[in-house]
Amino acid sequence: MEKFLCRSVDALLANEYENKEIILVDDGSSDSTSGLICDYSSRYPCVRGIYKPNGGVASARNVGLDVACGKYIMFVDPDDYVTSDYICAAVAKAEESQCDMLLMGYSTPWFTIPPIWKDYYPIENYECGSNAEIISGVFPRFFGMSSERLEKWMSGDPTWQNGKELPAACRFMFRKDLIRSNDLKFKNLKVGEDSVFIYECMRYANSLATIQSCPYKYEPLKQGAIATTLKPENILKNKLILQKEQIRIASEFETAYGRSFLDCYAGSIVIGAIQVANSICDTHQYKVWKSYADEVRLADAIDCISIRYGGDNTAVATCVAA
Predict the structure, then answer these.
(1) For 21-46, what is the mean pLDDT?
(2) Using N-to-C axis directions, what is the helix angle for 5-13 and 86-97, rounded to 10°?
(3) β 101-108/22-27 pair status
């Protein structure tokens, strides 16, 4: 990240909020990143450098969480940057609303072809004053693909993504007490560690507020962790890992709230089965199917299809097996 770190840190330093702590975690870098971090920490009292063996994004963020002194926590990737009011606006809103989680918008060229910078605001001005409001009104918009969305996607309906929020940690400011008191950590996943962390924060948060602005600038690059994740050989494996985590979380939520959350991610399970079947047809990697059957279970895909269409499960099972 030596080519991008200065832009990111300088943007944070330019934020006028004075009582800030910038923790830079060097996760076993092999370029000049460690030297840059050392220079920043020696010149700016608010900057703290931490050096550790390479362990991945999750372990780096967890180290930062362990040592953070501030009342609130925000996550900025070193190849991204923020506007000059990123911290001030978030803290002001959090103090006003006394929220556990604060959601904001972001800008990125990621979702357009050709790439064009575009702002993505929170879909609604969420102002939740209870955990029940968060789980019923916000959580489903972050948690996977519903069966209804899958049906729209398969029919070519361009509105299938309407109402869906991107589960990225950089979109939130978290009250540190929420994280510490519930011993929340990032899971050591190759993909989706942001999503899982957000889901688990929502499990315990009692309030959530929104800023209708886009202070975070997300610039996807051809290098770094996300580029490795998006290699074709990793996409399917990562999809299965994330689905396994979704099933675990849905099970825990069902126990906690006394209702099923299956329909919130039923489409994800079905499309996972389709992807696995396609992989087998292309490569004859039968171990991939066994992995899917062990972790997700064919029965889950059948149940998810039945949720949407009802009827005889035997017929549905025959269709999926075929």
Answers:
(1) 96
(2) 50
(3) unpaired
Contact 110, 218 (CB under 8 A): yes
Block residue for tokens 């409001």: 133
- Is the pTM for the entire model greater than 0.70? yes
pLDDT one-digit tens code per residue, 133-163: 999 999 999 998 888 888 888 888 888 888 8
Tens of pLDDT, residue by residue over 204-248, are: 999 999 999 999 999 887 555 555 555 555 666 777 777 788 889
